[in-house]
Amino acid sequence: RVKESIDSIEEWIESGEQSVAFRVASWRDQRAAQGDLKIAMENDSNFMAFVSNKAISNRKKFAKQLRDAAAVTDFDSLLVLKSIHSVAAQMRSPCLRLELLQYILGLDNRYSVAHVTRSVELAATCLNLSENDDNNLLK
């Protein structure tokens, strides 16, 4: 799922860099999804972020963070959860980035950034407890 998400965001970046019309259409589509309550958001998408290059730079940064997390982590360890938590903590007004995190984690679109962050924290706590139990069993 991480690889698919990276490919998806890089495809958006490539299209977004080539066309302001694509970025405006993307903003409009996301606003419509927010209005239909298909996406859990604390804030509405900022139009100017899509007209300027802010949306592109945010998504480039997100793609790099995903690539870095995938390159250095084992997906059944606390490291991947720490990486995802760090990514979520830096988000201010995500839409596509939030959707991709929801997809990676297997969450539906009712999960806001705050919910994703709390879910990752809960998973890390459970994984940490599990690792501690396993260590105690080995003694």
What does this structure look like?
Mean pLDDT is 76; it is low at 134-139. The protein contains seven helices and no strands. It is mainly alpha-helical. The chain has helices at residues 2-18, 20-35, 47-51, 54-72, 78-89, 96-105, 113-138.
The main pleated sheet reads as: none
Helix content: over 70%
Q: Please tell me what the overall shape is.
A: globular
Unreliable stretches covering 5 or more consecutive residues: 134-139
Spell the H/E element sequence.
HHHHHHH
What distance separates the N and C termini? 36 Å
Hey, roughly how much beta strand do the residues contain?
under 5%
**Computed structural class:** mainly alpha
DSSP summary: helix tally: 7
User: Overall pLDDT, averaged?
Assistant: 76
Number of strands: 0
The value of Rg in angstroms is 17 Å
Care to give the gist of this entry?
Helix content is 76%, strand content 0%. It is an all-alpha fold. It has helices at 2-18, 20-35, 47-51, 54-72, 78-89, 96-105, 113-138.
What layout of secondary structure does this protein have?
Elements: H1 2-18, H2 20-35, H3 47-51, H4 54-72, H5 78-89, H6 96-105, H7 113-138
Helix pairs in contact: 1-2, 1-4, 4-5, 5-7
